[in-house]
Amino acid sequence: MNRTPVVRALIIILISVFLFFSLSTRLPAQETVRSSVPLEELLKEALANNRGLEAAREELQAAKHRVPQASALPDPTAGYAVMGPMLETPLGPQKDVYEFEQMIPFPGKLLERRKIALSEVDAASARLKQVERELVLNISQTYYDLYAVDAAIAAVEEILDLLKKFEAVAESRYASRQGEQRDVAKAQAKVSGTLQELFVLRQQRQTLAAFLNALLDRRALAPIDKIRAPVLPKLELSLDQLLKQSRENRPELLEAAAMRGRQGHAHALAKYEYMPDISVGFQYTRIGGGMTTGPNDGRDAWMVPLKVTLPLWQNRIIPAVLEAKRNLNASEANLRQAENLAEYEIKNAYYRFTAGRQVVELYENALIPQAKLAFSSDQAGYEAGRTDVLNFLDSEEVYRNAKIAYYQALADALKNFAAIERAVGIDMEK
Question: How far, in Å, CA of 95 to CA of 132, rounded?
Fold first, then answer.
């Protein structure tokens, strides 16, 4: 009696049981848990090393240094004049004249200039916060994209191992004349297609890792470990609360409000050009010995000249006031536009996150378990000879695509949560 078919059948059954239990003991959300790169550490490193953030900090410090400059008086002038021999006075010839003069702007001008500089400091501070929030958003979204790619790579690698075993089973069955050659060809084609998909995913990971390294000020080829499986947070604030928080914390709104204040002070300063500035001076004249015998003969002289500017040229002042008014109107329009854009971004991210969370729950509770059950059933049916190879491959593709779509949906939901934080200007998980 030839026992070869019996032995081969037993081998096929053992392989089927192994594949079934190896597949059924894995959960889609836990296939890439092995990781050592928490998002918090990357954010901390980025906030310390990012060059764009460093530039924004320097710009803020530069703006602060402009405040004392804006409120300082103009430099005084000092002079010395050598008098000619013909300049005689009753008390004697004028020898030398020493002069000192200080321009004093009309009261209110320096105050408005200081307020302008302080408003620019507020705007620079808001821009710094904007760069920081944008950096946090880019780091977070890249982190979640890396998670989705890592999870997809792990899922595809798992399926690839199963397909290779399926290919071996198909070849074994064909060699024993229990299967058809088309099964072998289908299995080989499926393995090749899965390898191509794996190559594309690995290339995507390299691109994302390079971008993350750029944000962290690392070298482009620095290794990035596997990403820790993130947890989808709950959104505790309502939409109205988010909108209220944005009016107090969104950097773009803070900057627009600061620039409106700056243009308001600039408009007030332009009106002050109608008022004269004052110049106070002091002159000291050295007098030589004269021809008289009076007690004041040869005594030096001094005086305190006072001057005021005459703002006569209205063709300079009136256009300057009108220009400042137009700039003020523009800043108010920019503020309203910033408010409209903030409302749109918050609502968009809010609705996308809400829908994305529902999609994630649908994958977790229905789509993946159903696809997994169908795949396991078709696998067992094919190995028992009850299911066609096409059904098995179709169910495998549905199961794989469901897991990859789940990881992408989870990453998208997390990215939308990060977008809400960016739009509002706060960290809602702290």
Answer: 66
What Cα–Cα distance (Å) separates residue 193 from each residue in 171, 187, 384?
18, 10, 25
Pairing of strands 278-287, 301-303: antiparallel
Is the Cβ–Cβ distance between 396 and 159 less than 8 Å?
A: yes
- Pair 335, 299: CB distance under 8 Å: no
CATH architecture of 4-72+105-275+311-424: Up-down Bundle (1.20)
Q: What are phi and psi of 53, to 5 degrees?
A: -70, -35
Model confidence pLDDT, tens digit, residues 360-409: 999 999 999 998 888 888 777 766 667 666 777 788 888 888 999 999 99
- The residue extents of the domains of the chain are 4-72+105-275+311-424, 75-104+276-310
CA distance 427 to 233: 12
Distance CA 315, CA 301 (A): 42
CB atoms within 10 A of CB 314: 10
Count of C-beta atoms within a 10 Å radius of residue 214: 15
**Positive/negative CA dihedral, 145, 148, 150, 152:** negative
Give the model confidence (pLDDT) of 14-69 as tens digits.
444 444 444 343 434 333 333 457 889 999 999 999 999 999 999 999 999 999 99
CA atoms within 13 Å, Cβ hemisphere of 289:
1
Cα 256 to Cα 316: distance, rounded to the nearest angstrom: 28
pLDDT at 222: 86
Beta strand residue intervals within 310-365, DSSP E: none
Closest CA to 372 of 15, 29, 14, 12: 29
Q: How far is CA 84 from the centre of its chain?
A: 70
Residue 231 CB partners (closer than 8 Å, separation 6+): none
Structure-block tokens of residue 312: 């006569």
Rg (CA), the chain: 39
How far is 216 from 39, CA to CA, in rounded Å? 12
pTM: 0.78
H-helix or E-strand containing 119?
helix 109-175
Tell whether the torsion through CA atoms of 68, 70, 74 and 75 is positive or negative. Answer: positive
